[in-house]
Amino acid sequence: AETHYHEFVVKETPVKRLCRIHNIITVNDQFPGPTLAVRDGDTLVIKAINIGRYNVTLHWHGIRQMRTPWADGPEYVTQCPIKPGATYTYRFTIENQEGTLWWHAHSRWLRATVYGALIIYPKLGSSYPFPKPKLEFPILLGEWWDRDPIDVLRQATFTGGAPNVSDAYTINGQPGDLYRCSSKETLKFLVDLGDTVLLRVINAALNQQLFFSVANHRLTVVGADAAYDKPFTTSVIMLGPGQTTNVLLTANQTPGRYYIAARAYASARNAPFDNTTTTAILEYKSAKRGVSSRPTLPQLPAYNDTATVTAFTSQLKSLSQTKVPTQIDDSLFFTVGLGFLNCNPGPRCQGPNNTRFAASMNNVSFVLPRRTSLLQAYYQNIPGIFTTDFPPVPPVKFDYTGNVSRALWRPVFSTKLYKLKFGSRVQIVLQDTAIFSTEDHPIHLHGYHFYVVGQGFGNFNPNRDTAKFNLIDPPVRNTIDVPVGGWAVIRFVADNPGVWLMHCHIDSHLTWGLAMSFLVENGVGELQSIEPPPADLPPC
Ligand code: C2O
Question: Residues in domain Plastocyanin-like (predicted)?
Fold first, then answer.
């Protein structure tokens, strides 16, 4: 195994998109940021040097960080932010993971522009469970605002209302042909007739689920979130923010130019969304030159086509039989959803009918500490930072997908953790609520990947739904897009000690509190215990 050393300089860089130049936060002046490519078993040592204007932290999305929670990155959860002028070195080892992950800033909304791909190849001497593709392209889907990204953050954080929707989606940082002033920079992926290509598709968008498709070409899904899946073909895939999907494509069409495209899957009723389409071009090298015709656009589903989403996600199955726990020690039921609070009319009260949005899990709207991180508070026994009384089930039961009186659901704001015993087998039912509107929420768990044993619509009903769980080959993920007005059930073994954030990967929802944290206690001996904190861990 190898050790890879990198320097990530976080700074401001002028970037031109949609006819205008904005200063954005980048790593090493690159947008998207550098691609990290490693093999399973390798160690990454990344020195983050912050010469920008804002506090920052970096997160390695989907990396398990076994016993190294100090390198996980969410601000005030596992570390205090790296202040302007400061540095911090992230050091971690990849253990038994292969596929496509990514990295991003985990401080306020900086991940809007601070992100990149993290590719994990099989160990030397081992190979993919499918024929080696001739070419590989990472495809990072993102969002772009035609204003200072920091203003976008401020608007969403401080008005209590819905965030401004983006002005463009992007593929590897470029909006593409269909947007103003963007044609020249539209990305081209060149192929020869007959090539097989591995597309590593990553949804790095801040607030939007996305459909993805390539005109005239079928996609063979072979993995998601750094785990291999049973291959199946489809013309379209859907990714929630945070999710990745690996697909194989064969260049077997008439040599020409075809659009690679993505646009919104927007399940919420009456919520505004960016309805534009980002494109890149798949170009056969042998295509006739000088033909000025526009490439073919793929048929993307309608923005609210939940049936297509369900048809896609229900086909995801692990490549081989898994070690999904069949007995459960800790059975949890978490509601996920948006609500609102009455507030005094004013600039911070821009939600529906003189309210402001607040999101919660089991009625708790998560509040980050400021004096220290949760992990430090646990490790150093600092009292008064958090409590461990996060409710294992909702405090009140109701019809989660029906109309609910607002009085029933006024979230409490606090920093509550849920304690898991080392080695315990955990099941969580994630249930969408309709307090504001039903939505699909991409729920991401740090420090773990988990088995998705079931999902469906309406209220989860254990008597009806448990019998249908897949306990043979459920897909392994780190982010589950809980169906709109429905539920998903995940299972994992709590074998990684630390404090681990679980949250909605839509940043506006995270800002409103759709998060909680697990505290997984140390097991017996060194191999089951958190490593000591690095000497350069930033102070608060
Ligand atoms: Cu992709 Cu908490 O993050």
Answer: 10-123, 137-286, 389-522
On whether residue 54 sits in a domain, the answer given is yes
252: CB partners within 8 A, 6+ apart: 193, 194, 217
Tell me, using a 6 A CB cutoff, whether residue 59 lines ligand 1: yes
Q: Is 111 in the pocket of ligand 1 (CB under 6 A)?
A: no
Q: Atom of ligand 1 at shortest distance to CA of 510?
A: 2
Q: What is the CA radius of gyration of the chain?
A: 22
In a shared domain, residues 122 and 71: yes
Q: Give DSSP secondary structure letters for 393-446.
A: S-SS---TTS---GGG--PEEE-BEEEE-TT-EEEEEEEE--SS----EEEEET
Say whether pLDDT at 159 is over 90. no
pTM, full prediction: 0.97
Dihedral, CA of residue 101, residue 103, residue 106 and residue 108, to nearest 10: -100
Peptide bond into 475 cis (omega under 30): no
CATH number at residue 361: 2.60.40.420
Do 423 and 292 belong together in one domain? no
Residue 522 DSSP code: P
pLDDT tops 90 at residue 471: yes
Maximum distance among all alpha carbons in the chain?
Answer: 70
Closest residue by CA, ligand 1 atom 1: 61
d(CA 54, CA 36): 24
Question: What residue owns the CA closest to ligand 1's atom 3?
Answer: 61
Q: Are residues 270 and 378 in the same domain?
A: no
Q: State the distance from the centre of ligand 1 to the C-alpha of 501, rounded, in angstroms.
A: 8
Domain that holds residue 154: 130-317
The reported pLDDT for the residue numbered 522 is: 95
Quote the pLDDT of residue 292.
Answer: 57
Kindly state whether residues 442 and 350 are assigned to the same domain.
yes
Rounded-to-integer distance, Cα 349 and Cα 341, Å = 9
In order of 44, 216, 291, 539, the CA distances from 251 in angstroms are: 34, 10, 19, 52
Residues with Cβ within 8 Å of residue 322, at least 6 apart in sequence: 451, 472, 473, 474, 476
Instruction: Judge if the beta carbon of residue 106 lies within 6 A of ligand 1.
Output: yes
110: three-class secondary structure by DSSP: helix
Smallest Cα–Cα separation from 536: which of 94, 91, 9, 104?
91
Give the strand pairing for 330-342 and 450-457: unpaired
Same domain? For 194 and 55 the reply is: no
pLDDT of residue 407 exceeding 70: no
Task: Please give the number of the atom of ligand 1 that sits closest to the Cα of 62.
Answer: 1
Residue 322 falls inside a structural domain: no
Domain count, the chain: 3
Query: Is 462 found in the same domain as 377?
Result: yes
pLDDT tens-digit map of 495-507: 999 999 999 999 9
Claim to verify: residue 337 and residue 244 sit in the same structural domain: no
* 470: helix, strand or coil: coil
In a domain, 535, yes or no: no
Q: Are residues 218 and 306 in the same domain?
A: yes
| Closest C-alpha among 405, 409, 402, 397 to residue 458 | 402
